[in-house]
Write a structure and sequence with these properties.
The chain contains four helices and two strands, in the order H-H-H-H-E-E. By secondary structure, it is mostly helical. The protein has a domain at 17-71. Strands 1-2 form a two-stranded antiparallel sheet. It is extended, with a radius of gyration of 22 Å.
Length: 139
């Protein structure tokens, strides 16, 4: 990760997170009212109750879906949960489609912004300091 240019790392993060952003437009095609209610609730909550904007948005969305005709209580079942053993299996398709994107998101969203902030603060490679280890990486 320390040899990866910051622009490429930002592009990787944008590419992975762009899919989540575009899902909002796909959801708006099927239930525009719900998307607009959630967006308005977030904006109002962010303005007056910033700490609770996301939980408030979720609560309002749940109440809207429960009150609308889209919700049928027949699909909800209450009862005791029994654990089910699932033996893990390694497959290359899972490694490429699941593990690799999770690694990129983790590295790009958590580690690289911190490293960029440290470099912006003046720490990093110079002639007298060949490298400073930062959380397992060398700048």
């Amino acid at each position: 990760m320390n040899r990866l240019p910051m622009a490429i790392a930002s592009g990787l993060l944008a590419g992975v997170l762009a899919r989540f952003g575009m899902q909002a437009f796909i959801a708006a095609q099927t239930n525009l009212t719900l998307v607009l209610i959630m967006l308005a609730t977030y904006w109002v909550g962010k303005r007056w109750l910033a700490r609770y904007a996301v939980p408030l948005k979720l609560l309002i969305a749940i109440c809207y879906v429960a009150a609308s005709a889209d919700f049928t209580g027949a699909s909800v079942q209450f009862g005791l949960v029994m654990p089910l053993w699932t033996t893990p299996q390694f497959t290359w398709s899972a490694a490429i489609s699941l593990a690799l994107p999770l690694f990129v998101v983790t590295m790009a969203s958590q580690n690289l912004p911190g490293v960029a902030a440290i470099v912006a603060a003046g720490y990093g490679r110079t002639a007298d300091k060949p490298g400073i280890p930062v959380s397992g990486m060398v700048l």
